[in-house]
Automatic annotation (TrEMBL):
PANTHER family: PROTEIN TOLB, PROTEIN TOLB HOMOLOG. It comes from the Bacteria. InterPro entries: 6-blade_b-propeller_TolB-like, WD40. It holds the Pfam family PD40. This is WD40 domain protein beta Propeller. Belongs to the TolB family.
Length: 285
């Protein structure tokens, strides 16, 4: 079921300028719990989900405008846009992936056994391949890909470590993700990347916090991600100390914002096309 705002809670969509560190409010909702902003390739709109639907809101600010989904089942907060902006790919509550273009929908994902679910996070720079997290009925997750036009799946990782957030680098060579493969205690996720063709994952962060959802900038200058307090298991909602951070090209870590949030704050690619800004959501009470 779609998440709902708690009594007295707000959903606030912000755009942060990475050069100045200043955040600007784009939309505030007291009714719809909006999540997971994407930035359209033309730089003019943010795409968010809420109440099982998709909406767009102008980057300059304004009201939500519903995006027709052509009869797709209710969607969650895993959605991405094709590089040309003509197609939106969504994860639906039935566990499958769909492509929607001009209000016409088609299913992309395959049947991979009873209880298997697809959680979409990335599209390759050429628009031909989707990266998703596949979860089997046992709850085991792995990084997978599938052609955007439909076709056979490829499983990139094959292990029992909890992982999420599979997203392509701007050059298409890597898939970034978070994983517990280096954890000594449950829930201590860090950031990794793996060659898009498959191979050995490379660890990118190693600190006391719980790091999720790496989003590489279009120009390759940094990776934006959400960082939970030590001891957090998974990526829960309504956490007081969620830090939005940048992992810079030289390996440095820079704090950008601290929000009350977590789940829904920044689940999907959210950078502006020029790599100067990205979007996130806070959920203050």
């Amino acid at each position: 079921m779609p998440r709902r705002l708690r009594s007295g809670q707000l959903a606030e969509v912000f755009v942060v300028d990475v050069r100045t560190g200043k955040s600007r409010l784009v939309h505030r909702s007291t009714e719809v719990l909006v999540e997971a902003p994407n930035w359209t390739p033309d730089g003019e709109w943010l795409v968010v989900n809420g109440d099982g639907k998709l909406f767009r809101v102008a980057v300059t600010g304004g009201e939500l405008q519903e995006i027709p989904l052509g009869g797709v089942p209710p969607v969650n907060n895993d959605h991405v846009l094709s590089p040309d902006g003509a197609t939106v790919y969504v994860s639906a509550e039935d566990g499958h992936l769909y492509a929607v273009s001009a209000g016409v929908a088609r299913r992309v994902s395959n049947d991979r056994g009873e209880g298997f679910k697809h959680y979409l996070h990335g599209v390759s720079p050429d628009g031909r391949t989707l990266a998703y997290i596949g979860m089997d009925r046992r709850g085991i997750t792995n990084v997978c890909t599938v052609p955007a036009a439909g076709g056979d799946d490829v499983q990139i990782t094959d292990d029992a470590y909890a992982g999420d957030g599979a997203e392509y680098s701007a050059d298409g060579r890597w898939i970034y993700f978070n994983s517990e493969r280096a954890a000594s205690v449950p829930g201590h996720a860090q950031l990794f990347r793996v060659p898009a063709a498959g191979g050995v994952p490379e660890q990118l962060t190693d600190d006391e916090r719980v790091n999720w959802f790496p989003h590489p900038a279009p120009d390759g200058s940094a990776v934006a991600y959400v960082s939970f307090p030590p001891g957090t298991v998974g990526h829960p909602a309504d956490v007081a100390d969620v830090r939005i951070r940048l992992l810079t090209a030289d390996g440095g870590i820079r704090e950008v914002a601290t929000v009350f949030g977590g789940q829904g704050t920044m689940n999907v690619p959210s950078w502006s096309p020029d790599s100067n800004s990205f979007a996130y959501v806070a959920y203050p009470l």
